[in-house]
Specification:
By secondary structure, this protein is of the alpha+beta class. The protein has seven helices and 17 strands. Helix content is 27%, strand content 24%. The radius of gyration is 26 Å and the shape is globular.
Length: 351
């Protein structure tokens, strides 16, 4: 005998559950629609509103990203974008490095067994093995500056092979035994979906050109065999002639020979950058972005930070969702990547 009362009760419960689900779903979709409309309205005001400064900043910010660069094209024509951005970005001018501005620390030679008087040894600066980490707080951004006193501890980490998938900063550090690191050069990233395995420009590892042979001028950021940081545009052949041991490509150059460059053409985004003081200490900088309390930084912000920390030379590295700093296995900054740390082609690591 069929229990019709029980069946009716189950059917009624299912209908009530279905109605509740539809109400919740409708409410969520309505809320999402309101948020999307609000965001589109804000972007429209920024792109088409009365403030040229806000308009330029909005365009520069989204155009610096591979994933959402299309947002500017939703509201502005190509002619309007070209007018706002000032046409194609001019090629960066080459500045020959003044190596005399960097006084590298030297290691005091060990005292031979049997020699007692330390006075026989000249006073020398000893390379430090400590790592300093400083908070960086500016107008609209938060970040971190890591100071490595011995520049010879810096090297470039990469995945096992180029052309496939990149490797996260954490995995590079684990594979090499590095104690600290930041993301490095750029990579082919069509539509923000790149796998991080195809570097832009060049890559030099342990004095060998591993990527970029035959290219013309590219932005180069790397250390020579004495631990001096070189930044600027040059060919891979010129980079090898400088005895660069570890190098990647990105840019622009922010400071060279103690002089700040004019690089105001930038938006507000997460940033990674590298510099060097006159005493040889290496400065590794990350600035958080796309956070409620830290929108990001411009190139001018980076220059100001590096000058405050005494940089003689400095250059911008890949930023945005790639921006990441790690120290002793811990992630220092909040990543802007919604999917977690990105696979990378290169990273600057600390042995």
């Amino acid at each position: 005998m069929v229990n019709k009362a029980g069946q009716n009760q189950n059917t009624s419960s299912a209908k009530r559950a279905g109605r509740v689900f539809l109400k919740v779903l409708t409410s969520l979709l309505a809320t999402l629609a309101v948020i999307v409309v609000a965001l589109c309205s804000v972007m429209w005001v920024l792109a088409k509103g009365p403030s040229p400064t806000a308009q330029r900043l909005f365009v520069m910010t989204v155009k610096e990203t591979s994933a959402v660069g299309f947002l500017a094209n939703m509201f502005l024509s190509e002619a309007e974008l070209e007018l706002i951005m000032g046409g194609p970005e001019p090629e960066e001018e080459f500045y020959e490095m003044d190596l005399s501005l960097i006084t590298l620390p030297t290691v005091r030679p060990p005292q031979p067994v049997g020699d007692s008087p330390e006075e026989d040894y000249p006073e020398e600066v000893t390379q430090g093995d400590e790592i300093e980490l400083h908070d960086v707080i500016g107008s609209g951004y938060l970040g971190y500056m890591m100071i490595i006193h011995d520049p010879m501890r810096l090297f470039v980490g990469t995945p096992n092979n180029f052309g496939g998938r990149g490797m996260t900063l954490m995995d590079m550090m684990r594979n090499t035994g590095a104690v600290a690191g930041i993301n490095g050069g750029g990579f082919d990233d069509p539509g923000g979906t790149g796998s991080g395995g195809i570097p832009d420009g060049l890559v030099i590892l342990d004095g060998q050109l591993r990527w970029g042979a035959g290219r013309g001028n590219v932005n180069v950021i790397g250390f020579d065999d004495a631990g001096i940081l070189h930044v600027g545009t040059m060919t891979p052949t010129a980079a090898m002639a400088l005895n660069l041991q570890w190098a990647v490509s990105f840019g622009p150059t922010l400071i060279s020979n103690g002089i700040a460059h004019n690089v105001s053409r930038s938006g507000i985004n997460p940033r990674t950058a590298i510099g060097q003081r006159a005493d040889g200490a290496v400065l590794l900088l990350v600035v958080e972005g796309r956070q409620i309390d830290s929108l990001g930084a411009t190139y001018d912000d980076l220059i100001e930070i590096f000058l405050d920390f005494g940089a003689v030379n400095a250059a911008n590295l890949d930023g945005g969702s790639s921006t990441l700093m790690m120290l002793e296995g811990e992630i220092i900054n909040r990543s802007a990547s919604v999917s977690g740390p990105r696979p990378l082609p290169t990273a600057f690591l600390v042995s």
